[in-house]
Write a structure and sequence with these properties.
It is a single chain. This protein has one domain: Beta Barrel (Porin), CATH 2.40.160. The two termini are 34 Å apart. By secondary structure, the chain is mainly β. Helices cover 10% and strands 41% of the residues. Strand 2 and strand 3 form a beta hairpin. It has four helices and 18 strands. The strands form three sheets. Strands 1-2-3-6-7-8-9-12-13-16-17-18 form a twelve-stranded antiparallel β-barrel. A two-stranded antiparallel ribbon has the order 10-11. A two-stranded antiparallel sheet has the order 14-15. The radius of gyration is 22 Å and the shape is globular.
Length: 401
Amino acid sequence: MTSKLPLSLAAFALAIAAAPHAFAQNDQSPTSTVSVGGSVTSTTGTSPTETTPAAAEPKKDEGTKDAAPEEKKEEQLNPFRGSIFLFDQSMLTNSFSKGSQLSPSPEYEWWISPRLYYNFDKHVKVGARFDFFKEMFTNHEETTDEHEWRYGDPWLTASYSDKATFLSEKSRWAVGAVLRPPMSKESRANGQYFALGPNASLTYGLDFAKGAKWFSGMTIGASVSYSHAFTKSTTPNSFTSFGVPHTDANGGQYLDSQIRSSTLTGNTLLYALNAELEVHEDISFSGSMIWIDQFAYQPPDVTFNGATVARNPNDTHFRQLTWLLFDLDYQVIPELSLSLGYYNLNSSIAPDGSRRNFVWSPESRVFFSLTANLDALYKDATKPAGKKPSAAAKTNPLGIL
């Protein structure tokens, strides 16, 4: 089994993976997230997510479609552009095969994520995002109570983006910052005050057949994010009255409030490659590859019988994880999008020193998510009287939903 990743880090990784698509669609948020289900417990803090981590923000930019000039202007001035409400369901792939493990441990999980963004103009955007997780019907997660609700760290974001006209009209660049106050158990147990860091992305958009309903174009992007966790110590602490009797190197007795002895990750660097193909005007297929580099603190010096204990010169505090994900997205109506996909999070190196498979692991998942596009709902609510609502049902070209 792979080690579980903190919820905030998982979501952060997913956000980074999704950022190229979001910026290509004139979405200035650095935390736009692919719809990848559930928490992947210890990757992101990209926020991946930010991901990503995982349903995406609205896949279609209605401003790019043929519309009246006043409708285009209205779309551009929508102050809540990019705001969504995500409901995601995910399952471990080994949940479908009891013989895949010596001790079967199925998992079915919900992920609920409201994300509200406010656009000052076409370039500057701020937002607030929240993530809530609950394992339903199964008891796979290492939580205190069965079916316990778990909370990710909130994301407070700000970003600036613009067209990368030196590449193409569909290309964009963006820079931003994410502040994450400690709300999750993981962050509070780590004695974390907050996590803060910058991020950036660049996407290249190209057209195959401009205006065509099928395979009109695609976007390719790269993203990078750095995050530093500001904590009161270099090892996890208790956030309740937790205490365990311990003996120090000199034989002294004391009550230890540390939840575990390993040192905390001080700095996290995430970088991702993303590609998205516009299969149909309402359908897209995307894939992302994320690398998560974690740099843990070095343990303090220890003395025993008056002598300093020698350190292992080969000791390393660098950990790397990889995250591969694919998803198929379908915009049923402007107010609702559906996503179906697969992802796998794994550490790059196994305990025996061998390089692990980044495509599949016992912790790989399949997910299905529904995304309510709040900006489209706002547009419906503020339309002048007599105008038709935007919720006109689309014809499903695949005939499978």
